[in-house]
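Re: export button greyed out
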Amino acid sequence: MHIGIIGMGLIGGSLAKSLKSRGMARHILGVEANIEHGKQAIGLGLIDEIVPLQTAIETCDLIVLAVPVNAIIEILPEVLDQVTHQTVLDVGSTKSQISLSVEGHPARGRYVACHPMAGTEFSGPQAAVEKLFEGKCNVVCNPEKSDADAVQKVVHLFESIGMYTIYQDAQLHDMHAAYVSHMSHVSSIALALTVLHKEKSEEEIFRLASGGFRSTVRLAKSNPATWIPIFEQNREHLLDVLDEHITVLSKFRSLLIKKDFKTFHQLMEEANSIKNIINTA
Amino acid sequence: MHIGIIGMGLIGGSLAKSLKSRGMARHILGVEANIEHGKQAIGLGLIDEIVPLQTAIETCDLIVLAVPVNAIIEILPEVLDQVTHQTVLDVGSTKSQISLSVEGHPARGRYVACHPMAGTEFSGPQAAVEKLFEGKCNVVCNPEKSDADAVQKVVHLFESIGMYTIYQDAQLHDMHAAYVSHMSHVSSIALALTVLHKEKSEEEIFRLASGGFRSTVRLAKSNPATWIPIFEQNREHLLDVLDEHITVLSKFRSLLIKKDFKTFHQLMEEANSIKNIINTA
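Workaround output, generated via the alternate export path:
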């Protein structure tokens, strides 16, 4: 199978690395606007050559869009304009607006909307990790809108690198993603800013920060070019969960003011139940 | 050196394990009200025997209080009532109220206020980790209030298990700890509750949660019996930083409502600077 990956970032790069190591693709074409990133991707052995988008579309059976979600919306209809038999998938963290951008497109069936739920706080080809996807979940949205052979090919691709597949409606996906992923990023960014605002001494942060602080602010290191378009596209669901989060924190504030530590204790016990759902750190 | 550790939890147990593995203590006495935890601590080889508090005070040169901070305030004055030459230290996450509880005590000099800044979200003797403290910071508060030989003994103890020492005023410690540790716990607990409130399907959380969510909610698994008394004792500093955190999140909310993603981008870039301070996850 000839594979072309558009975007040599964390996800595109990790996908290339995973596919190569599993023997799923001997020759991978990369498309990358950033010349330096393109060179790095070749140097790191993630891909074999950098080509123009046009070449990738013409010569590949499978085309992966791994650029930020705002760029996916721009590129995806153009790519579908040119495909005949090829399969196209994207790996964006939002699905509704991307799906909407090709709703009714004559080649809609060749496109499979995906969200492999894996990542780190790092970006660019040097952030590529071979086993990023292993044991993780790939969400395929609205498979009924895609040709059966395209869905089959995409599911096989992700399962070959150790992912399991679930199927969801794009709107529902975006709601769940806001809860389980996007809100974590907003919370972490806000916590980093909070501490940067309050703690004037960087040295104190450096000296005193232990594992707890590091893990809660980890996502605040993420790339704004990736994440701000996600927040933009998933604005309504994000606002909904952010409102709830502010409500919970305001409740904690009120309990501290009233010195109601008994209720705080009960709420923390309730929060503890997350360990029954997610039992590894 | 004969060492007695009061409290066989994560910190007391890890300290015992670290001291044994470094050959700093051949025989460690443990004091533990929970009979099951006492048995586990012996079974795991953390300590050699469980004794009453009285015995530990009478027979040890060094007594470590590793119980929740509300219990430290109760026990510390009683312990100091009985010491003559012994050194007493605590490992609580707050320092002001604990220090205040023995201010002016005739044996105040024998007590050294400590906060080894290390931990995990787990609790009890089975959570003990041998290398928990390696490379981490131990804060010694107001060493001028302790006898020089006591400070020297305590610093040597923590440095022998790989920690480095910093000295701080108890009030300042509590302020920094609120920023860099306690707020992370509150944020994580709030995020877990938020998602538990919004996401009615535990299965969806389980299936979709990737590393990002796991790391931001990790601290929500922590023991309320340990943490609620910390929030209680550090209530004022915690309220101060919580107010700032709610302000930042409300600002994000307002930017989402106004669709001002340019400003959101700038704020995320600002948050990114945390990676220059904390460069490992």
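The radius of gyration of chain A is 21 Å. The button fix ships in the next patch.
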